[in-house]
Amino acid sequence: MNYHRLDQRRNFIARHFAEDIFMSAEPGSILVATGDVIAFPIIYFQTVEKLGRQITLIWLPMFSQPWYVRQLRECYPDLVSPFDYYDGQSNNLKLLMDANPDHTACFIITLDDDHSSDST
Q: Which end of the chain has less neighbouring CB within 10 Å, N or C?
């Protein structure tokens, strides 16, 4: 009886967010994201609707898993990962960006431990 108050079919916030990312990031960019709210819309549109495929998405919470790094290498052959897992210390974002100088890095993240790229 009160479904109309919960009806979200006209809620396009996630779509507009992902479209804004795809329109503003340069082709070949590496997007490093944290949080479900950021990553899920991008993953959905890249996987299901085939939009924004020119952007490499790295979902930082999963990047510490060796299987995820292997999956990234398969999905994005031009991405160079100089390590088999991310730990924020010896295997950090600065190493990743230095290994991919032809890619623009875009960050939508909050980092507590990895300050490797603070000065660059």
A: N
The single-letter code of the amino acid at 17 is F
pTM of the model: 0.80
Answer positive or negative: Cα dihedral of 8, 11, 17, 22.
positive
> How far apart are alpha carbons 39 and 47 in whole angstroms?
12
CA distances from 52 to 22, 59, 73, 89, 108 (A): 5, 15, 18, 30, 16
Is residue 52 within 8 A of residue 22, CB to CB? The reply is: yes
Q: Is the pLDDT of residue 16 over 90?
A: yes
User: What distances in angstroms separate CA 55 from CA 18, 23, 39, 43, 106, one per listed residue?
Assistant: 11, 10, 12, 11, 10
Q: Do 86 and 92 touch, CB atoms closer than 8 A? A: yes
